[in-house]
Each structure stands twice: as C-alpha cells, then as structure tokens.
Amino acid sequence: MSAVGTFVDLLAGRRDAAMLTPRDWDGVIGVARAEAMLATLAHQLKGAALPAPVAALLADQRAAAEVATQQALWEAEMARRALASERIEFVLLKGTAYAAAGLSCAEGRQIGDLDILVPAHDIGRAENELLEAGWEWVKSDPYDDAYYREHMHELPPLIHKARDRMIDVHHTILPQTHRTTPDPLALVADAAMTESGFAVLAPADMACHCAAHLLADGDLQGGLRNLWDFHCLTRDFAAVDPGFWGRLDARAAKHGLRAVVHRAARLARDLYASELPEGWGRSNPRDRWFRRRLLARDDWGHASDFALQQAFYIRSHWLRMPPLLLARHLWTKWRKRAAG
Amino acid sequence: MRHSTRIAVGPVQFRIGSDWRAPVAALERLYAAYPQDAARPADATVRLFAARPWRRWLRPSVQIGGDFVVPDALPLPLSMGLLAAEMGMNLQVALGWRRHLLLHASAVARDGRSVLMSGVSGSGKSTLAALLGEGDWRLMGDEFTLIDPASGDALAFPRAVSLKNEAIAEMAARVDATRLGPLLAGTPKGDICHLIPRADAVAAMHEPARPALLLFPRFGGATAIERLGEGEAFVRLTEASTNYTALGEAGFEALTRLVRAVPAFGISYPDSAAGLALVEQLWAEAER
Q: Do A30 and B67 count as a contact with CB atoms less than 8 A apart?
C-alpha cells in the first residue's frame, strides 16, 4: 500500500498503527509532513501503541502545535484590538476560527495566515485601522494590487511588521469573478459567538466555506487537510444537531454550493469514512479524479501525477475567472515575466 | 527514489533519497562509522532530485527537497551533490526540529561540560570546534547545538564537519587523509571539504553536556575578549536560533536559563592558535 494510502487509513481509523513497519512509518511521516498534517496525525494516534521514536516525534508535534495555536489566537486578539476602536465587527475564518471555537479539527491543525471576514461596506475602514496598527502591504506590484481589489474576495495580503504574520481580510468567501457567488451578508448575519468572544460562521456556513475552500477555490493543494476539516466539522455538528445535514443542504443551496458540498461529503466518506445520511451518498464517476488528485503523493512525500496537478490548476483558474478576464490576466503576467 | 541511505546524527534520524548514486555513495563513506538502526523510522526526509527529467544526465544538477524546501533555491551541479545533501539535512533540522532549542553554534565538551560557539558563517566557529575536537575535547558539532528545554543540557549534533577554504589545509595537515571527504572546489560557499569526526565523538553523541561557556568568536583582527551581558547574549542567541519563536514559552525559558547560568564572551583572534588559546584561557577561568 502507498504511504499516502496508509496515512489516510490511519486518520480514518481503518488501520492499526501497531501493524506498521519502520519503512511504512518513513513514508507516513514524510507524507504527513508534506500535507502539514503530522500534528493532526499525532492527535489521532494519541495513546496508540507506537514505536518509541515515533511516539517521541508525535509528542513533539503535539507540543509544537499547541504553541502555534496559541500564537494564532493571539494574532486574532491583535486584530480584534486593532478593529475595536472603530467598532468594526469581523468573523474569524478557517483554522483560527476552528481553534477559537474549540472544534476537534483544530487539534494539531496548522494555521497559516489569520483569515477574517468583514462586511464589504466596512472593508475600507478595516484596511485603515490595520495599517495604523502596524500591518503593511506584502505586494507592491500595482497590477496585483488592482487585481485583488477589483476581482478578488479579499484585500491584498497584509503582514504585521513586528510579528511577521499575515492577515487576509475577506469580504466574501469566493472571488467576485467566480462562477459561484455565495451570500456574504447571510454569513455575517448568522455568525455565532465563541466563549472566547470571537465571531465565527454558523455551523452550516462553516462547512459550506470549508467545502468551497477545498473544491472551488484552488487546485486542491493541501486538500487532504481541508477535507479532514470538513470530515471533523460535519461529524461534530451532526453529533449535537440531528437536523444538521438537512440544514447544511439548504444552506449550501442558498450559497450556490450544493454540488460542492455534496462532493466534499462523498470524498470525506471515501477517504476518511465519514458517515453520510440518506440522499448524500449517490456516487459520481468524476469523484475518482478528485480522489486521485487528493492522493497524488509518492512515498517520499513528493507531489506526483504532474498532468493531473496541472489539470486541476487550470480548472481552478477556469472556475475563478471568466475567459476574457483570464486571457487578459495571463497576457499581463506573461508580458511582465518576459520583461522581468 | 532510485538511491537512498539512512543517517542518524545526534537525536535526528534522516532518510536521504537521490536520483543519482554519487551523493549517496559519498554520504555513506562519510557516515560509515555512525550507528545504524534499521528499525528506527526517519524523523526527517531529504530528497536530491533533478528539477527537470533531462537534468539527470544533461549538465546534471541537484535540486534540494524534502519535508521542508526553500522556495526558489537554485540547484547545484552534481559534482557538489554532497554539499546539496548537507544543506538538505541542515534545512530539515533548522525548520522541522521541535524537541530542543536549536542554536546555530558549534560545541565541544570536556568532563561533561560544554563550550558553545555561536557565529555567522566565516566566524571560525567550525574550525575552532574541529581543531579542539582533535585535542582533548569531544567534538559535539560544528553547525547546530541542541538545548534540552527540560534539563538545560546541550546535546550534540556531530555531523561531518564542513571545512571551508583555508581551514581545509589546516586540518589536512593534522588528520589522517581517510578522515577527509572529497574536495568540493568553487562552491557558492567557497571550497569545501568534510571532516569525519573522531570515533569517540560519534560514540558519545547521545551524551548530554552541561553548558559552561558561551563564546561568540570572530576570526580576524587583534586578540580581544569582551564580556557580554545576559541581555546581549540572549538577543544574539535568539538570532542564532531557527526555532526559538516556534517553541514559544519553552524556548524563552531554555534561553533565559542558559544566558543566566553561563558566562558569555565575544572573542576576536588573528589565527587559529590564538583562538584555541583564548578558548582554553576562558575555560580555565570559567572552571574556577
């Protein structure tokens, strides 16, 4: 069995960690690192019988992830303080939101940038407040800056000059030019408060955003992690709310994300053994390309299946940009590269 | 990968894969006397590969990859494959290791106590450690020293010493030729030749040594000693650590404990003999 297959089986609980050989572990650790999921695996295997060096390495990862989570939440607190004086409300998204809400997928999850959602009418004020509080632009390229502002769902990325951490300020969850345009007002209006005092998306919206981020907004790089988020979110929400899957279906329809959410659910079932309710399991022959893309990694942790990667890369642009805009974008980028 | 080998240096078990035989063969020669444990899974993966398929044969060039990569890193010609392997191993430790506070420092030990020498490339920290390691010191490492946050002890990372430029001839005059790797001339870091640490240093690589002296060497200029305060040493070491921030409070505590317990000096020296004399002098004073 391939290392990535073993890795997914371990997460899904289909395989006993005690049965792995040292060479199996080489591959599993390499793949898990490549997917930035070694600490996630470490949490899943907490308490399992493991070879001593693996147990030590996974304990390191759990400890390091705890520090990283704390640092990510501190970054959210910094944003809150920066935006509080102008009473600008924001909703935490993705990893920081999962951590703030204490959700199970946050255990060991790597958190990169701080992602926040601000209502579109507040975006200018939010930008000013962040700039005053020490964040600065990452990109100085005028074309990229204009592109972000005209067509994207977020401001150009900002980085804090003292703490060296990035913030992505979103006003919606998919690019404005995307074929699908979720309803950002509904996302903000229905946001929930965590005990720590941060707003996060309501459960169904959180799962919708997770699926959109996984399947509609990129080339599926890092897809195993996003799919793991989706698996944990839906499992945990359904455990406390028997009507969750129905609510998710309705909410996905409202955002135009029904097909995306259903595909995410099927993929989570196929890879992580998610339990789906009736009506969600209808198989779709095109899912196998997604499964293949998600599992495209060799036993050394290296991305494999170059042609499929490229196909998904092209698909991501096709989804995000109308043809004319895409042509203009590629032309500009090509000219710049030729000049530079 | 087509060719691969496994190397354990200090607490880190590496697996190194390569598209070519040569870098793996060179590593296997340098690390032949290091302990091997096939039952141990790898903590870190290094990959040496051709960025484009034809680069395996046509002007072959080695791209450095693995668990962690440096984006936009330029490949090295295959003749420098050993340097690529060394850089790949350093990179995985620098960016991936979390068990200990990692200091960009060389170290030697005597009677269970250690001297840590931190400095940028060219400061002479590798050469000093290598020279001391040929005397009555145990070489702990020429690149990284690991500090255990729980005990405050220094742990060794005795990889093959990376000798550069003038240091090559200086060491070649003192050690058996079988302990030297091939000369890699004209690399981006100058001429490089690897020195295999003495067998006793490899045998003792898991033995911790309590830090007793902290030095910031600077090669060139007149002989000078400058006592450094705790704050100065602390700031210099945060800059010399690749995982200080990632360790959070544990890193802060390990580092404050180190600079409070251990006297720190900046030293300048015009040549190796003067550098060695300074280390011995400060060691004798620290022992009192």
A: yes
Instruction: Choose the closest CB to B42 out of A26, A68, A302.
Output: A26
Burial code of B83-111, b = ≥16 C-beta within 10 A, e = fewer?
bbbbbbbbbbbbbbbbbbbbbbbbbbbbe
The dihedral formed by the CA atoms of A314, A316, A322 and A328, expressed in degrees to the nearest 10 = -60
Residue B244 pLDDT > 80: yes
**Count of Cβ atoms closer than 10 Å to residue B220 Cβ:** 11
- Report the distance separating Cα A145 and Cα A120, nearest Å: 17
> Confidence band (pLDDT; 50, 70, 90) for A340?
low
d(CA A86, CA A173): 23
Alpha-carbon distance A67 to nearest alpha carbon in chain B (angstroms): 6
Do residues B85 and B118 both lie within one domain?
A: no
Chain B residues close to A56, C-beta within 8 Å: 99
pLDDT tens for each residue of B105-156: 999 999 999 999 999 888 889 999 999 999 999 999 999 999 999 999 999 9
Nearest to B84 by CA among B55, B105, B113: B55
Query: In A, which residues are within 8 Å of B13 by CB distance?
Result: 53
Pick the residue of B52, B99, B242 with the most A CBs within 10 A to test the interface with A by mutation: B99
β-pair partners for B218: B268
Query: CB–CB of A26 and B15 under 8 A?
Result: yes
CA distance between the termini of chain A: 45
Judge if B117 and B88 occupy the same domain.
no
Domain range list for chain A: 69-201
Q: Does B253 touch chain A (CB under 8 A)?
A: no
Q: What residues of chain B, 89 to 108, have a C-beta less than 8 Å from chain A?
A: 96, 98-99
Chain A residues in contact with B248 (beta carbon < 8 A) = 67, 70-71
Give the pair of three-digit tokens for residue A109: 């999850």
Select from 3.30.710.10, 3.30.460.40, 3.40.50.300, 3.60.20.30 the CATH code of A69-201: 3.30.460.40
| Structural domain that includes position B56 | 3-96
Domain count across chain B: 2
Per DSSP, the three-state class of B180 is strand
A155: Cα within 13 Å, side-chain hemisphere: 28
Query: Does residue B210 have a pLDDT over 90?
Result: yes
Q: Among partner residues B13, B47, B67, which is closest to A53 by beta-carbon distance?
A: B13
> Does B224 lie in the same domain as B124?
yes
Q: How confident is the model at residue A319 (pLDDT cuts 50, 70, 90)?
A: confident
Q: What is the ipTM of this complex?
A: 0.94
